[in-house]
Amino acid sequence: SDDDHEGERKRLLQTLTDLAEQYKIRVAILSGDVHVAAWGIAYRRDIAPTENWSRIVQFTSSAVVHPSLSGLLDKLFLGYLNSAAGQVQTIDAQHQVEMMRFPGHNQFMMAARNWLAIEVDPATSGKLWFTWRCEREQSFSNHLHAIM
What we know:
Structural class: alpha+beta
Oligomer: single chain
Helix content: 10-25%
Largest sheet: 5 strands, mixed
Radius of gyration: 16 Å
Order of helices and strands: HEEEHEEEEE
């Protein structure tokens, strides 16, 4: 959402929305962040939510080798991010972005070393399962989300 990239973000959303509408397909964006796991949805304000092609889902995962946010300033910054993520963001006249609560948690950003697995479920004609594995002291947790 940086001002320097505002135009690029709008063009990317418009291009992906046009592609999804033309072929009536669902589009997902996979991205990385060195500190958190998160997911959100970008959508057209003028299209009903039942039109699945109009909703672009973004999955964010970090490199599992990078330490998560742990210091006091990091936790304050994470609190700010979670607060800001609770508000729907207007991109332009057509598009909005909404962050979703992380599966199994009450926050939007999961501050943990993590990785994201994407698996095809052959029993459901190709539904995709997105599973974050988030590091804990004893082992990795399993945060499952099905889509598409």
